[in-house]
Design brief:
This protein is of the alpha+beta class. It has one domain: Creatinase/methionine aminopeptidase superfamily (Creatine Amidinohydrolase, Alpha-Beta Complex). The protein has a five-stranded antiparallel β-sheet with strand order 10-9-11-16-17, sandwiched between helices. Strand 16 and strand 17 form a beta hairpin. Helix 1 crosses helix 2 and helix 3 runs antiparallel to helix 4. The protein binds magnesium ion (2 copies).
């Protein structure tokens, strides 16, 4: 069931989103070579709890941690561990969720440990282009558009640049989703598709927009832990995500970080 949120509900989600943005900003300063993903997870959890919020992921279908920390050929949902130490040149995707006052926010970003000069240009470009695809999808979240316009906007960036666009494989799907009182609500949003199709966008709809692209084929498997997804061909993947509300004034990014304020403000109609 698709639910539309009132302005007051969207404001609650924005508060959860600000808590989550601050967590990611904190982690950006910590995700350095030598740090374990288990440490990142503890820092994130503590920060969320300090704000009087709860980590959305912990306990979700039995998930054991606050973050997903997916490295290199891992696409999404990798479980943080004290046994996983970040190394220079790792492509690290950090996904987190915050539950505050009954509403969730969900966002992810990808960083290159040690800095972009530590990897070939093609890898740094993958990270940048996946982020750009997220913004194109967000930009399409306009009243009157259809969901297919959002999927197409995301997927076109990936196809045009020759990436594997993670969407459907072997009977499984990965993509964006509605969000609100539940972390995952209808509708599901494929990261590719045809414009002009699907449900029409209305004010009050809130979505998590989350492209995943890879340098190789868009095929994956789930690891024995039941969570981690990794590319079948071992190629590197990137993942970016924001929680965004559709409003009469344009898309409102509820999880924008400080360095994204300008871009997200530009989405709103003057
Ligand atoms: Mg997420
Ligand atoms: Mg999500």
């Amino acid at each position: 069931m698709v639910t539309r949120k009132s302005p007051a509900e969207i404001e609650l989600m924005a508060t959860a989103g600000r808590v989550l943005a601050a967590v990611h900003e904190l982690l950006a300063g910590v995700a350095q070579p030598g740090v374990t993903t288990g440490e990142l997870d503890r820092i994130a959890e503590l920060q969320i709890l300090r704000c009087g919020a709860l980590p959305s992921f912990k306990g979700y279908r039995g998930y054991p941690a606050t973050l997903n920390t997916s490295i290199n050929d891992q696409i999404v949902h990798a479980i943080p561990s004290d046994d996983v130490t970040l190394r220079t040149g790792d492509v690290l995707s950090i996904d987190g969720g915050v539950l505050l006052d009954g509403y969730h926010a969900d966002s992810a970003w990808t960083t290159i440990v040690g800095g972009r000069h530590c990897v070939p240009d093609a890898v740094a470009d993958l990270v940048d282009d996946t982020r750009e695809a997220m913004w194109r999808g967000i930009t399409a979240l306009v009243v009157g558009n259809r969901l297919g316009d959002v999927s197409a906007a995301i997927g076109e960036v990936g196809s045009a640049r020759g990436y594997g666009v993670i969407a459907e494989h072997d009977g499984h799907v990965l993509g964006g989703h509605g969000i609100g009182r539940r972390l995952h609500e209808d509708p599901f949003i494929l990261n590719c598709g045809r414009p002009g199709r699907g449900m029409r966008l209305k004010p009050g709809l809130v979505f998590a927009i989350e492209p995943m692209f890879t340098l190789g084929a868009p095929a994956w498997r789930t690891m024995q832990d039941g969570w981690t997804t990794e590319t079948l061909d071992g190629q590197i993947a990137a993942h970016w995500e924001h929680t965004v509300a559709v409003t009469e004034d344009g898309p409102v990014v509820l999880t924008a970080r400080a360095d994204e304020a300008e871009r997200s403000a530009a989405l709103l109609a003057g």
